[in-house]
């Protein structure tokens, strides 16, 4: 948690320099509190790097495709030739991502993670899937992660402007 605190301070300091006045000085502290509430409920002082990265990626302003690719990179196993995600790694990713809606009382049970894992690996005979299959599954908007594209679309609408005046 201490290392993550330092990294977040540095990250948000850089953003404040790039975008003066747009980032609250307490953002690093608030983000760390959120991550601790999601991934360190027992107060051990330890948060897995991949879990924190998954949350930061999910909550970033990046495009959905960029987020999906980043998830794959963080959770995939590299065998020298290609990268792939195993059922175990996918369960871990889904469990980590499920902590985001859980913190606001909207998460689902462990069985939801199993159902989503099964749907991703449906018809797959190999012990792992490649990025193309992973991305295709995420684009189908699995129920467990439906909040992610929904939040992205809501944030994207903030950037839309039109020249129509309402009465």
UniProtKB/TrEMBL annotation:
Pfam families referenced in this protein's UniProt entry, alphabetically: EF-hand_3
InterPro entries given in the database record: EF-hand-dom_pair, EF-hand_dom_typ2, KCMF1/Dystrophin
Domain EF-hand: 65-154
One CC-aspect GO term: plasma membrane
Domain of life: Eukaryota
TM segment ranges: none
SUPFAM superfamilies assigned to the protein according to its UniProt record, in alphabetical order: EF-hand
Gene Ontology biological-process entries: synaptic signaling
Official protein name in the record: Dystrotelin
